Structures are given as C-alpha cells and as structure tokens.
What does this fold into?
Amino acid sequence: MFQDDVFEELVTYLTSMRASFEKYFPEEQNTKMKLNSWIHNPFLPNLQKPESMSNEVYKSLLEMSSDTSMESLFKTTPLNDFWCRIRDEYPMLSKMALNILLPFPTTYLCKTGFSTYAATKTKYRNRLDAKPDMRLQLSSIPSTSKVCVYLPKRVFRPYIVK
It folds into this structure.
C-alpha cells in the first residue's frame, strides 16, 4: 500500500519534470542543434547536408572532414579557435560556423554596456548625460592618459588680431 503511493507520487513527479524540461528545451531547439551538428563536430560519420547549405559548401565540408590534419587540429583546439584557424583554407565553412557561434559572445558586450551604464549613472551623477562617458568607457581604443602624463607640457599663447 505504502509502496504503491510512493510509486504513484514518483511517476507524477517525473511526468511533471518531463513537461518542465520540454518547456525549457523545446523540440524545435533540438532540431536546430541537429541541423548544426556539423559545427560542433564536422568529423562525424554520415554527415547530412543542412538545407541552408549550398552544394559547393557541402562539398568543402566533406573534403575537410576527410582531412586527418584538420581532425587532429579540431581535437586539440577549442571550437571557436578551430573555425577561426581554418578561415583561409575553408572561408565559406568558417564564415557559416562563426555566424552561428557568434551570438553567444555578443551577450557579453551587452552586459558590459549595462554595467558601465549602471556605474556611470550613480546617485551623484544622476543628472548628467551618460552617453559621452559610456562612449569613452566602452571604447576599444586604449586609454592615452598615461602617455599624456609623460609628455612635456607646452604653454599656448593665442595671438590676438586687431
């Protein structure tokens, strides 16, 4: 009697867990993962041609998957580095793979922007326009303030023309 109740409770719990997993990981996402499996491992046997891939690109994928030096490179380097390194030999494959892998690092840039904005808009600087400060803080150009300290200071005297 007690075991039957526990068993039914367990079945109910596992059924609800399965429904929850299906909610978070829908079948369409699994289909996308299967279509892009060539990116995660281009050396799998029986690679199928994705619908979005042209015949020419698929031919280069098959050519690359039969290259043992590429396979050893794939095993020894991270995924992003692998696709960047083969950019010269297989430009179209590399471009397609990096376009699919690219959205993940861009969230980092978004988070960096929001944290910079939050740091700039403190209660002391609340009335200031944050745009110029953020442009300076998020710039990929290195700061030259250290260089400017060591430069000799010059005095400029403007000429007044009458």
Observations:
- The CA atoms of residues 37 and 80 lie 14 Å apart.
